[in-house]
Amino acid sequence: MEYVLEVKNLNKTYGKNRVLNNVSLNVKHNEIVGFIGPNGAGKSTTMKCICNLIYPDSGEIIINGYDLFKDREKALENQAALIESPGLYQDMTGKENIDLIARLRNVSKERVKEIYEFTEIGKALERKVSGYSMGMKQRLALGIAILTKPRFLILDEPTNGLDPTGVIKLRSTLQKLVKEEDISILFSSHQLGEVEKLADRIVCINKGEIIEVPNIMSSIQNYIIQISDLDTTLQIITNIIGEDAVEAITLDSIKFEIQNQDILSEILFQLLSRKIKIYDIYKDNVDIETIYEEIYIDNQILRG
Ligand SMILES: Nc1ncnc2c1ncn2[C@@H]1O[C@H](COP(=O)(O)OP(=O)(O)OP(=O)(O)O)[C@@H](O)[C@H]1O
């Protein structure tokens, strides 16, 4: 099955306020999708609909092939969610929290052991949750969420409240989930750097509508090249791609933007044939903040 989540034409109004307008998005098998958008854009509302916590006015949600509104139990069986702060029993130990849910859901002893390991909480699993750091609580909650081996995980702002170490650890935990547990993930976040590092793909929402992410992430490639002769190199690259796409950034390095690999080959060929030494060349990725600015700040239509 290609998709673990298909959301089609979701609409939701609160009174006269239309908060979701024909929202459609999907998550493919083994994919991590980042869901971004400004405050009040509709991220949580979309996620709550997917988790069946609220009903949309219209639209379709299919989880692992099961229609959420026609085959609710089967659809939800394949899904786990952390929507608000982890709902853990603070007066119980980490282990007791896991064991309790495992008993309620008939989870095997073997799986429970796997989850102890997964949390990477170690001996502290014997301590009360009230003394845990935010990161430990989150890993525990994630472990509990995946006890029943769901296919799809939905996380609303999972990096909220985590310190930098917690954020780095969460990233590796989620990547491990995709690899080892065969899980696909949809997560929302305001921390653009995190989205960029974690997501395979980004879905943007603004004022209740999904916006196409400009394809600049894949089509534009920025390179930085360090060379022996700045002036001649500038001239060669400018002749090939025009002066707007080239910029000297230090006394011996140049940044340039190309649309396809053939142009890069042409540039390198010409530099080498003019006996210019290339000390270093590397790709400078278009960062997500540039994309965010382009979508939400520079775009007049969206601003209005
Ligand atoms: N229960 C509710 N009753 C009325 N309006 C609501 C309700 N829940 C959300 N809204 C409105 O729906 C819109 C979308 O809110 P939502 O929480 O989905 O945004 P969000 O993208 O998750 O924002 P944030 O990044 O701030 O969490 C907002 O205008 C919000 O005020």
UniProtKB/TrEMBL annotation:
Residues 5-232 form the ABC transporter domain. SMART domains: AAA (SM00382). GO terms for molecular function: ATP binding; ATP hydrolysis activity. Keywords: ATP-binding, Nucleotide-binding, Transport. It comes from Proteiniborus ethanoligenes. InterPro entries: AAA+_ATPase, ABC_transporter-like_ATP-bd, P-loop_NTPase. Pfam families: ABC_tran. Coiled coil: none annotated. Belongs to the ABC transporter superfamily. The keyword Chloroplast does not apply. This is ABC-2 type transport system ATP-binding protein.
